[in-house]
């Protein structure tokens, strides 16, 4: 059995490096394709609703498999699990690169997702096992480098590649890295996390898949199909009912697939709530910025990606620094400062206009990412620190799953808010314009009428984006208030050891 001691004399840095590369290319691949969707639509002659499944389907598979990752991590060795996951990811990448039809490309993305869904929880569990609590901040800071930087540089990299090469190049550059990582892992990877001979409850897996899959699909489809679509509210209701049944089943089981009883630990529960709120707020910039800079301002996809690049670099630089600061000062100080920056920058985003300089947008987005970099990983690590070691797989699985679900819910809600506000404002502006035309009694030419209509739609959309950023500001304020309740914690067994040491020291002084 592998060493399960959290205080390993020498953490397996080589193994962690291999897992880092695997997780990086998996997460990078998740956002790499977004800019290429129009080119794929053109080549395969498919509609936007169909091509969107390349992203939605990827997220769905992640949402279905990540809850089961707690079982896989406890049941199978780290080496076997990573090799299987990386093999699936590599096979999916190769198939996507040579896909002759859209259906084949979609299947390839599903295969990729089935591999990547296991990598992040596996990496987090290895790091929680390999490092003692007092050094986890620095370790998880490096982990944050992967989790945050990969999706942040994805749009910039893909924008440049699409401008100069075919969309297939997005898979061609990932494939050699994935295959090389797989080859190295076969010879160099070791086992760190403990295994147990547990059985998979098939009913739990089915309920989990329907529950999380239904919610993700329903909320992801709401922006396109509308909330009144039977497919949207039907899948959300079915998903919610299945999820409730899943939770109750887990609470009755002695050895559940996903341990929900870990929410009895207050700091883990608080970290989950804050992470959900932050994920919703964070998606506002990821969704609204491309719409604003490309649709309203006419900025190219390449320049749009470059706008976000400094923010990605800042997050990459700050992640290890934030980890060290977490070890020294704890999560509350970092979270309060980071969320304050996030609230202020989100508020300024709610005031952007058609004339806001490009440089101002870069600075605002970069500072917003600076704030985010000080929050996500410290809050999550502090919550996981309170869990006993045996519950680490469940904690990481729940955190990753909730981020997927809250991201989908946040996207759907924010798109709905923006669309509703845009439509409402467009009606008001159109009524004002019509009143002015009637007052002047002179009918505008067809060209002037078209220009007026376009101007109204642009102003209405800008208003919708501003209002949605304001809503995002209020959401970030909720996370800021919750951050003041964060306390520094250690796992129960470490607190007991510390208590015994303190008592022993007092007794020695007394004697």
UniProtKB/TrEMBL annotation:
GO terms for molecular function: transmembrane transporter activity. GO terms for cellular component: plasma membrane. The chain crosses the membrane at residues 12-33, 53-74, 81-107, 113-133, 140-161, 167-187, 199-219, 231-248, 268-293, 305-322, 329-349, 361-380, 462-486. It is found in: Cell membrane. Keywords: Cell membrane, Membrane, Transmembrane, Transmembrane helix, Transport. Its main location: membrane. It holds the Pfam family MFS_1. The keyword Cytoplasm does not apply. It comes from the Bacteria. Residues 15-491 form the Major facilitator superfamily (MFS) profile domain. InterPro entries: EmrB-like (IPR004638), MFS (IPR011701), MFS_dom (IPR020846), MFS_trans_sf (IPR036259). It is a multi-pass membrane protein. Belongs to the major facilitator superfamily. EmrB family. This is MFS transporter. It comes from Virgibacillus phasianinus.
């Amino acid at each position: 059995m592998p060493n399960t001691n959290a205080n390993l004399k020498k953490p397996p840095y080589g193994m962690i490096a291999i897992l880092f590369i695997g997780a990086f290319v998996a997460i990078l691949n998740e956002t790499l394709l977004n800019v290429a969707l129009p080119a794929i639509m053109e080549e395969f002659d498919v509609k936007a609703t169909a091509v969107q499944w390349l992203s939605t389907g990827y997220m769905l598979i992640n949402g279905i498999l990540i809850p089961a990752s707690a079982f896989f991590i406890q049941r199978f060795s780290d080496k076997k699990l990573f090799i299987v996951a990386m093999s699936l990811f590599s096979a999916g990448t190769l198939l996507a690169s040579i896909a002759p039809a859209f259906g084949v490309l979609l299947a390839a993305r599903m295969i990729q997702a089935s591999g990547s869904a296991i990598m992040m929880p596996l990496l987090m569990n290895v790091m929680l096992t390999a490092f003692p609590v007092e050094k986890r901040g620095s370790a998880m800071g490096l982990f944050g480098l992967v989790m945050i930087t990969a999706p942040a540089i994805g749009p910039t990299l893909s924008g440049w590649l699409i401008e100069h090469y075919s969309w297939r190049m997005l898979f061609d550059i990932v494939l050699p890295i994935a295959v090389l990582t797989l080859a190295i892992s076969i010879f160099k990877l070791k086992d760190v996390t403990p295994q147990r001979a547990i059985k998979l409850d098939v009913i739990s897996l089915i309920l989990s898949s329907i529950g999380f899959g239904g919610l993700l699909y329903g909320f992801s489809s709401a922006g396109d199909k509308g909330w009144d679509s039977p497919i949207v509210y039907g899948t959300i209701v079915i998903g919610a009912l299945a999820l409730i049944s899943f939770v109750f089943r887990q609470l009755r089981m002695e050895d559940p697939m996903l341990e929900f009883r870990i929410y009895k630990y207050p700091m883990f529960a608080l970290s989950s709530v804050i992470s959900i709120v932050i994920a919703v707020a964070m998606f506002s910039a990821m969704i609204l910025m491309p719409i604003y800079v490309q649709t309203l301002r006419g900025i190219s996809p390449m320049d749009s990606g470059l706008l976000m690049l400094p923010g990605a670099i800042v997050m990459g630089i700050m992640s290890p620094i934030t980890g060290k600061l977490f070890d020294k000062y704890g999560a509350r100080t970092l979270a309060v400062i980071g969320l304050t920056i996030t609230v202020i920058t989100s508020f300024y985003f709610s005031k952007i206009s058609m004339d806001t300089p490009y440089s101002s947008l870069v600075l605002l987005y970069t500072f917003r990412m600076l704030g985010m970099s000080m929050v996500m990983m410290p809050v999550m690590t502090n919550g996981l620190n309170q869990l006993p070691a045996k519950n680490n797989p469940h904690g990481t699985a729940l955190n990753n799953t909730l981020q997927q679900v809250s991201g989908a819910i946040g996207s759907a809600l924010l798109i709905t808010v923006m669309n509703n506000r845009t439509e409402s404002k467009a009606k008001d502006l159109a009524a004002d314009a019509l009143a002015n035309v009637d007052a002047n009694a002179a009918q505008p030419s067809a060209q002037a009428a078209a220009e007026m209509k376009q101007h109204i739609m642009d102003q209405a959309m800008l208003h919708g984006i501003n209002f949605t950023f304001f809503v995002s500001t209020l959401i970030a304020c909720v996370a800021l208030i919750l951050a003041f309740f964060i306390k520094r914690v250690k796992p129960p067994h470490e607190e007991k050891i510390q208590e015994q040491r303190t008592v022993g020291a007092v007794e020695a002084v007394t004697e």
